Amino acid sequence: MFEDLKFDCRYFRGHIPCIPNKLRNKVCGNCDEYSPVSKRILIIKLGAIGDVIRTTPLAVRFKKIYPECHITWLTHSPDVLPADLIDVILKFDFPSVYAVQHQIFDIAINLDKETEACSLLKDIDAKQKFGFTWQNSHIALATPQAEHKLITGLFDNISKTNTKNYLEEIFEICHLNFEGEPYVLNFNKALAEKWKVIKEKAGEKKAVGLNTGCGKRWQTRLWPDDYWLMLIEGLKQNNLFPVLLGGADEHEKNLVLEAASGAFYPGHYSLQEFISLTSNCDVIVTQVSMMMHIAMGLHKPLVLMNNIFNPHEFYLYNNGVILGPESGCDCYYGNTCKRERHCMLDLTPQKVLEQVIMLSK
After folding, report:
1. Across 54-60, average pLDDT
2. Separation in Å, CA 127 to CA 109, 142, 157, 243, 315
3. Where in the sequence is the domain holding 154, given as residue range(s)?
4. Which residue from 10, 60, 104, 349 has the least number of CB within 10 angstroms?
5. CB atoms within 10 A of CB 335
């Protein structure tokens, strides 16, 4: 019996019944659903939630090149990855790291520059390695194609001249060309049904999701509260239904905005519920990139307010617009504003409103 086991089958799960066995009583010796793995691929992308989401087009491409491949993904944010595309999704912890260190891969990719991610790629047994590794106690390149991404991350003046978007960069690192592969997202349809209450409240109006915060890291991206109030009023005057969105950090702000404007605020919830809430909006407005990536994963038209980042970094799939302050910004990737007058004051509610109206048609 042991000699009949198909360890290279895509359905093999190591120590528990596979799906063909569980559902149809198939066993390896005479199974007609045996599907050998063509390539074993490891993706190390720990990063922030948005970073993980915007890396998923790479998995789409590998499944296209190698339809029978097996993808393992190691991350801090496993909840956003779709299990129907990624075969094994692992949270970055000791058991997971120990497990992948004792496997053999055909391709291993690390797209993070942190020491732990680079060191792990160095220790992985793989025929091909792409991205960032570790050598002589410092970050190193697995192949020369990772140089551009490393250098633009090290030097602001070079980063400012970059015209490649993130997807072009990571595909280049893997010796591929980006061809418009889509984001994919773990999406709970049952939760989305629950939040159809947004559409019910909106009636015939288009629901516009307003992501009012920007997290604690990038406070320089924050739009003034009175601008949100002016935008909400403009949306209502144009027969649009404003919906306030955010996490725990934005809860008090959104309660204040709700009380002052009458905009609908459903509250703050888990990440999966937040994604489901967003799925019931027709257009999204945000100043933070995590929401941008969720919106792209849900194929929602987007207005992205940007000041401190290189706008070329973002790719919106021809389904949105990036707006910046007319006065520009002096604090590239900065956490504190260098001006007496904050540049986000020069991105007016009227300008945002005009784009929302266009995208909602």
Report:
1. 98
2. 11, 12, 36, 49, 31
3. 37-173
4. 104
5. 12
The token duo for 219 is 């406070």
Tens-place pLDDT, residues 251-269:
999 999 999 999 999 999 9
In a domain? residue 180? no
> Of all helices (H) and strands (E), which one includes residue 70?
strand 70-75
User: DSSP 3-state assignment of 285?
Assistant: strand
- How many Cβ atoms are within 10 Å of 39's Cβ, its own excluded? 17
Q: Are 308 and 173 in contact (CB under 8 A)?
A: no
Six-digit token pair at 20? 């063909």
Q: What is the C-alpha end-to-end distance of the chain, expressed in Å?
A: 62
Task: Give me the number of domains the chain comprises.
Answer: 2
| CATH code of the domain containing 47 | 3.40.50.720
The residue type of 87 is: D
Q: 286: which residues sit within 8 A by CB, 6+ positions away?
A: 211, 292, 295, 302, 303, 304, 305
Mean pLDDT for the chain? 93
Q: How far apart are CA 272 and CA 187, in angstroms?
A: 7
DSSP symbol at 336 = S
